[in-house]
Batch of 2 targets.
Target 1
Amino acid sequence: MLDYSILIDHWDVYMQGFANTLKASVLALIGSLAIGTVMAVFRIAPIRPLNWIGAAYVEFIRNIPLILIVFVFFVGLPAIGIRFDSFTAGTLGLTVYTAAFIAEVIRAGILAVPKGQMEAARSSGLTYLQAMWYIILPQAVKIVIPPMGNQFINLVKNSSVLGVIAGLDLMYFGDLISSETFVTFDVYIFVALFYLLLTIPLSLGVGALERRLAKSR
Amino acid sequence: MDFVGAYAPAHLKFLLEGFVVTLEVAFLSIFFSFLIGIVIGVLRYSRIPFLSPVLAVGVETIRNLPLLLIIFFTYFALPEVGFKLDKFYAAILALVIFESAMLSEIVRSGLNSIEKGQIEAARSSGLTYTQTLWHIVLPQALRRMVPPIVGQFISLLKDTSLAVVIALPELMNHAQIINGQNVNYVIPIFLLVAVMYFVVNYSLSLVSRKLEHKHI
């Protein structure tokens, strides 16, 4: 039987961690959408050096551990005089890491729209930007939403690395409560439940969207 | 920044020793996860009353939890209920729990990708359900599973670095130990460690891409 008094006594602490986990995830999502879109466009744009920059970013970041990137912001940059608090360092690390995955999702979405669509739009008299905005992007967005949802789920889970650098998230406060109460098992079960509270509804939503998209094809 | 000091032979050797532990943990974990993942994937695919739904809930729960939490759990929480593991095995257990859930989904979608007509044809040729699964469905599905499994292995190699929280002597942990000696080593060491991960993972991703083009 779980000891619910731990949850009740430390409710405020759990809530603070939960709020910070959510905050880090949302901030990192916004940041990585911005960087990811730029990198995706770099990879597709008909300019060679931009292709290289986009490809280098995506391939390098995707193949190294998240925690290494977080450490670069938390330990590496301070070594040359650039300092962040732990929450900011963690969120920046998450943003840089997730952006590489989001760039791939966006690129795949744009490439999934048949080439004929652009040609047809252009020959109907639309400019390149109009065609992109009114014809290609709306279709790409529909394709991109489910994998983007999956990236957000990963982001929420990955935000737990903030706990490693005392980033004031759910993981960190779980650690704090367990060192205060000398209880670990129950404390972490409650931490797990708070994560599931975020990730399970997201997973169900993504699943439903995927099925709807599969049907409409 | 002190590149010369950071890349002293003793440090390079220490990092390599860490990388060996990283690879060891990753290989052992993927091996056991693959076996468990196949069993869970096949059981879920076979739609066995009661068992399949229970497995579905288990897999979905694990997949929706942070791996870091599972590592904390196997190392810090299990001893509380009388199950004490050494760092090395606690890390492997956590990775196996997490990766089995991930791999079971790859196995399940691989099985689902085999056309239903093949199963009907096999069954009407007189094969039993198990024979059909073993001789017809699994061999084809396994081939299609190779690229996503390589992808999962890349994730796993990166994820072993999370075991730095329990001071498992892997690459990240050894990097942190060297960094602790001199602040001027930090950036050169992180750079080298990133390159080590990158070289191995990028090579794997090239292999995976090649396999993808071969089989689809």
Target 2
Amino acid sequence: MTSRLFGEPVQRVEDAQLVTGRGHYLDDLGHDALAAAFVRSPHAHARVLDIDVTAALDVEGLVAIYTYDDLAASPRGTVAEALPLLIPHPALHAPRTGYALAREEVNHVGEAVVMVVASDRYVAEDAAERIVVTYGVLPPVVGIEAARSAERRTHDDVPDNVAAHLLQEVGDVQAAFAGSPRTLELDLAIQRSASMPLEGKGVYARWDAEDGSMRVYSSTQTSTSVRAAVAAKLDLPLNKVDCIAPMVGGGFGVKIVHPWPEEVLVPWAARELGREVKWVEDRREHFVSSAHERGQLHTIKVGFDDDGRLLALDVRFWHDNGAYTPYGIIVPIITSTQLLGPYKPGAYRVEFWSLYTNTVIVTPYRGAGRPQGCFAMERVMDAIADALGLDRAEVRERNFITPEEMPYDHHMTFQDGRPLIYDSGDFPATLAKLRTLIGWDDTLAQVASWRAAGRRVGVGLACYVEGTGVGPYEGAHVVVETSGKVKVATGLTTQGQGHFTSFAQIAADELGVALEDVEVVTGDTRRFGYAVGTFASRAAVMSGNAIAFAARSVREKALRIAGDALEADPGDLEIVDGVVRVKGSPAASIPLATVAVLSNPLRYAFDEASKAATQFAVGDTSGPPVREDDEPGLEGTDYYSPVGATFANGMHAVVVETDPETAEIKVLRYCVVHDCGPLINPLIVEGQVHGGVAQGVGGALYERMEYDENGQLLNASFMDFLMPYASEIPHIEIDHLETRSPLNPLGIKGAGEAGVIPSAAVFASAIEDAEGFVITAMPISPSELFDLRRRHAAGEVPSLRREDRRTEEMR
Amino acid sequence: MGKRDFPTRMRQDHRVKPSPFGYAAPATVEEALAVLAQVGDDAKVLAGGQSLLPILNMRLAAPAHLVDVNRLRELAYVRAEEGGVRVGALARHVDVERSVPAYDALPLLRQALQLVAHPVIRNRGTTVGSLAHADPSGEMTAVLALTGGSVVAARRGSTRTVAAADFFLGPLESALEPGELAVSAFFPSFPARTGTTFLEVARRHGDYAVCGLAAAVTLAADGTVTAARASYISVGGTPVVIDFTELLAGSAPDESGWHAAGELARQQVEPEADIHASADYRRHLVGVLTRRALGEAAGRAA
Amino acid sequence: MPATVSGMTAVHDTTTGEPLHDVRLRVNDVWQEARVPARRLLSDFLRHDLRLTGTHVGCEHGVCGACTVLLDGAPVRSCLLLAVTVSGQSVTTVEGLGSPEAMHPVQQAFRECHGLQCGFCTPGFLTTAAAYLAQHPSPTEAEAREAISGNLCRCTGYQNIVRSVLRAAEIARERTPSASDR
């Protein structure tokens, strides 16, 4: 048998192109296309009173200027209607979505008001700059407190600013609190950050007036859905629209949202003008007109016993959804369910309010509500440990769901509308591995001795569970060409996760061919039309299994055809290195390429090899050339659709040192144990973990969206939005656990988001440990830590109880 | 449309391509001064462009004319001269940083330059350009101020020398006038037995400092302090120079002195808050960094 | 050497009427020429006028480093340079480092060490690392990290990039055995 590729750290097949400048990203296409630029609202909340384009009209090179009125006057399609509500939910009682171009009102700085099309981007910006929009400024709602107080409204017809309100309760929480010997209350806050891929969004549209077809390239995480949205908005038959995600320079969630206004407007303008049009989002636009995430306030009450076991948990939180809710309430739903992590909460009640503010929309960013939930739950665990004077790892372990309790039903509804049931995981084993990796007891002892020597060092720990691989489905098409090359197509998209390699590993294993003979295409509706998209750590699970299924059907057919040719029982055949042969007598063999030829009965030979399939070459005339239950070609299509998500888990530990004077925060060690089931390609999985952790470090210590009271984003540049450089990211130590998922044949679980989930929690835990006082808000900067120290010294911030105990011990 | 109750216009600031401008790339200083005289006050001089280009790209500035001095090879020099280091307008940061004569004459130049952004920016950015940009977070402004250096400004037919104290007028505002070109800067050396350092706290490695300072301590032959001064960035509209000589002269170079100097500095600065740091935190850093920097500088003075 | 002076340029863009300047650059060892407005950024000139799209732009304000190219061998941000300013000089882009068939050590190392994910920032890391290694052939891990600390990557967490820089140094040494190895 060919050596198995699944599990091997094979080098990525796409990299030779990418490292030599030959990858084609959105802006590498369409050099001759017209360029679009946008006039965007400088106000967080305003009426659009007048748009005066006169001064722009004499800009040479200007091709068109469009406002909402032009969309409304468009005879065809629904471009003037509000953008779709992608994920409706019964609790989302006041959904609001924006328009492709602002209609009468703008609700955040950066909302598109006017579209300019010109010969190039420079000229388009020249014209955009001359357009005078007169606004009637309205008072903006900025921040969760402002939204909650409802003294001002984001949308006139939503008086309390509440878009959604959802309550889930499992067990009798009131009774459980009554029976709890101990209780604690916590108020916790997390600020906004953003996906911030290095490549912004971008759309390039080619309208073919002669056959009435539209080809759209978009830097998207879901080309099939963009295709459907464009067809609907432009009133085109689906089969006249194609959408292709070229190489995409990172997504991290923001590119799953669709159709972005520009994804509607660029194709629409291309059709209006009969010209190719392209828009490439610039970095400043990305800050103010894409999406953010993470901003939430939480109030938690927990009841527990003297051993630290959870008895009752009551969580209320307020989620800032920004100006509109195109993506529904997925993020707070995930917080409310995934907050539970690896623990049994006792009775659990969770209630959230999703609030409108005059800020950029909020949609999933890698982790998608889990970082907030993990922060909340892990703060609770640390607080319990501190209250009882117990080891923090020990308290966690006492609350773990055990492997024997799997599958574990939380009796809640998850983000996919399905029951929240953990399919697998061995949390005690994950923790044990982490304790070994970091040397838990030794590290604690070491830290204690450093502290005794006057250094401020702390250790943090955080655990999480991540529902991955959510449905509804993905599919794949696998074909063996007569050259013997295998072409795989799946509909979801790729933003750097290495699908071209990991999917090829799966197909190569199933078909018994070499990796270099497999070519994978993703995100191209010309090749595969049915898909959902790449989000929620689902690509490997969903398309990986779909590819395995499709490849298996191809294999079965190959063995059947080869069996006929070799006059052998297909059950006695194997495929090794692209050759079908009889097990035990390799001389009786037929190349897969020849099987592919034979699979397609021919009248006409197109090359030497194909002669074997022509009508006078084929011997058997007893039946029809293509049997009734068969199809020509050595190919197969299949789908994978799971009953529910598969749950990965992980645990992180960090050692930090804070400067006693400057309050600078340095990471001394960062350890990760991660369980996403069997690794398809360890190189790729570890890369995903590294990247997630780095984004987590950014989110915990550096990144935030700094809005002022007028709703102006003060740090909308890479100078002031502090994404970490290499100098800010620690070396990351990783170990794996591979607990199989029972839900899919490959046994795999998603890995994409894991690294980022526990960061706020683990850093809060460590900084708190180093400083001796409670940390309740993240991210934290040196300036804020300095301020906390002062407030702590003034008695405004409580000490940890273990700090009091330490002080007592020293007396 | 409705009533114009609050009509306002604000700057659109999401642009990434410069506005059009008239462009000149003179080949000699004389030619450059002639062009500058001709184009009037709506002009910008382009040297390294590492601060100017972001501003042009975002259209935060849209000068009618750009005078590109990158062909003035005669200004691409770093020279150790009598009493200090002279840096021509076209000397890139990297040239100054790597210059051995400059380091021998004034180690503070290299100490400071290593904190200026990242190496790739220093490959192109010019030292004189960063002075002309007069960013109160710019390390080299503090160096010019601490050394009591000067900038030579030329216009057609005349040249003047502007002392550091008169050169920085406010945030992003230098004493350079329309028609003038900063052709060089002079950084005087320190007396013998002077040690220097540049310390700063920045959010990320290579970022503009939240607070930073250049410090110089001169010791007498007997090891006591004869002079101690520091120049601060990011705590005022221009570099802030504080002289600790009166406080420390004659005393032994020790922690208590540095601590007292830190206290003095803390009281003298009036920093402002921004999104990265509170005013209090900056003031606190002034104290901490003063103590550390003076100690480090004194250690190098011996 | 072109000495261009404003206002006297006779050529204007036929669409926009903007004055044009002849820019002549030696790009990846080949002299290339185009007529562009003075405000054309070097990054756009390379990408759109010369269609060398390997150089990427991630912020256009000089922070992310994706657009880093080598100007006369030294790394610079091409989004912070006007093409007209560097006319007459030599530029090396990622395409000029090597090809899939003949990779530069840094290219080979990034592939071997999984030093890239989406690949968008990668060209800037490659040019930066190539220039660094040319001057510092045997960096320590800390030096390798420092060398790439002016470039942003959102995917990799930098760990494998640091590993790639170290591996590239190794590959370069393997390819040119020193006298003592003979």
